[in-house]
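User: Sequence recovery, please. Input:
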């Protein structure tokens, strides 16, 4: 990926890096530009792979489109060594103590995440729990979007903060699925999977009534 030139599009990229998700109108206000001009720049940036967008429903009015940097753009334009360091640490653990120690470490981390979320979701409805978990995953860099069908909620992750690690240690993905199943206490199915070539990771969370019908 080429570096973004130091012009308006470069400024938009810098703005999205700092704010992690903005509408075209918000960007236009920040840069004092017409919204149509901003949308033209956004279209070019998306075509070149720097940004992506998703639709977000609001309580009143039409849905809005949120623009964010792609994971490729983040890694290319704003590199950090955290994933590489984590991957190297897991590789070293395999050499020193065996592959089973990696499983134990990852399971320990999952238990810690479950403990962190339990108090926040206690006593909440399924819809409220999903919002809490989406916010938690967002904080970890997963860029989560929630969609809804008559029988289920769809949890979409537009970015995988651990994709390079999950490609080598796929048990990470299974642990994430287990985390959702345990905290939501309803059937959760994986529909899309980035390490398998999909553009996003997504999970189908059956609504309580549907889950009860299946169990019955």
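Assistant: Recovered sequence (216 residues):
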């Amino acid at each position: 990926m080429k570096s973004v030139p130091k012009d308006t599009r470069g400024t938009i990229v810098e703005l999205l890096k700092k704010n992690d998700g903005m509408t075209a109108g918000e960007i236009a206000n920040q840069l004092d530009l017409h919204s149509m001009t901003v949308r033209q720049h956004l279209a070019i940036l998306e075509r070149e792979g720097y940004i992506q967008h998703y639709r977000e429903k609001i309580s009143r009015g039409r849905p809005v489109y949120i623009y964010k940097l792609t994971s490729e753009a983040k890694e290319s334009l704003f590199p950090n060594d955290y994933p590489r360091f984590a991957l190297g640490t897991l590789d070293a653990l395999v050499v020193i103590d065996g592959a089973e120690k990696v499983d134990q470490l990852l399971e320990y981390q999952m238990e810690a995440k479950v403990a962190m979320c339990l108090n926040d979701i206690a006593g909440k409805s399924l819809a409220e729990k999903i919002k809490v978990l989406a916010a938690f995953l967002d904080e970890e860099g997963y860029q989560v979007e929630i969609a809804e069908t008559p029988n289920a909620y769809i949890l979409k992750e537009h970015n995988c903060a651990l994709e390079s690690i999950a490609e080598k240690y796929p048990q990470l993905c299974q642990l994430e699925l287990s985390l959702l199943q345990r905290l939501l206490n309803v059937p959760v199915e994986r529909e899309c999977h980035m390490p398998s070539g999909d553009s996003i990771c997504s999970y189908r969370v059956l609504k309580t009534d549907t889950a009860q019908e299946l169990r019955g």
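The beta strands are 51-56, 64-69, 144-148, 152-157, 188-192, 201-206.
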